[in-house]
Amino acid sequence: MNHSLPGHAFSCFVTGTDTEIGKTLVASALVYLQAQRGHRVAAMKPIAAGTGWRNGRWCNDDVDTLAACASVALPQQITTPYLFKAAAAPHIAARLENVLIDRLHILSCFEQARAQSDAVVVEGVGGFCVPLNDSYDTADMAKDLNLPVILVVGMRLGCINQALLTAEAIAKRGLKLMGWVANRVDEQMLYAQENIQAIAQRIDAPLWGTVPRLEVASAAAAAACLSAPISNH
Ligand SMILES: Nc1ncnc2c1ncn2[C@@H]1O[C@H](COP(=O)(O)OP(=O)(O)O)[C@@H](O)[C@H]1O
Ligand SMILES: [Mg+2]
Hints:
Elements: E1 12-16, H1 23-36, E2 41-44, E3 47-49, E4 52-54, E5 57-59, H2 61-69, H3 76-79, E6 82-84, H4 90-96, H5 103-115, E7 119-123, E8 131-133, E9 136-137, H6 138-145, E10 149-154, H7 159-172, E11 177-183, H8 192-202, E12 207-211, H9 219-227
Parallel strand pairs: 1-7, 1-10, 2-7, 3-6, 10-11, 11-12
Antiparallel strand pairs: 4-5, 8-9
């Protein structure tokens, strides 16, 4: 299957095989690429868990990384309606602060972002099925937003199963898997190319690129790995 990163502005929901596998890196690369092409791109991380106190405010790395790449600046209350202090599973972090994550509020923030931009790149939280409260999870949020999904696969032992299960869950929600990205989180991984091939053969979506272990994990460096036309066969 050929590389098919769209040339036009596109909104998407970025999910991944796990946490800490490169969702923020790839999401910021997609924001960066579109901004470079002159599009008005907003980035959202609707739910973020884990903050540090910097420059007089509570900050979250994902939120700040995405905001730095966006060409549309939006208030953080819009891009991240739910920012929790604890670096824990979101439903736990929310409960610790007595907050109930409200799907309609997320949707309303997304609509406001969309109204002010050509495209909105939304990063999920953790993997695709992470709970947000007792009756709502990340997959429901992707479904509510009705966005095509980009799957980031953290290339390490076990990722084939994680990638295929995630692709199955995305299809079950009736969402389109727009593309996937192989991110070389473990540069020592044996048979990485064979693993990429195995996933490519079983996932009905184009591989948008392979990001190597980068010396500097910047949006620009990752974007360069996605923008060059590639073939996975
Ligand atoms: N290809 C890569 N090369 C170097 N560092 C990477 C790469 N992918 C991810 N990282 C680093 O690994 C950490 C987790 O990546 P991140 O994009 O935040 O993952 P996630 O959003 O899935 O939790 C970050 O510090 C990031 O800079
Ligand atoms: Mg992230």
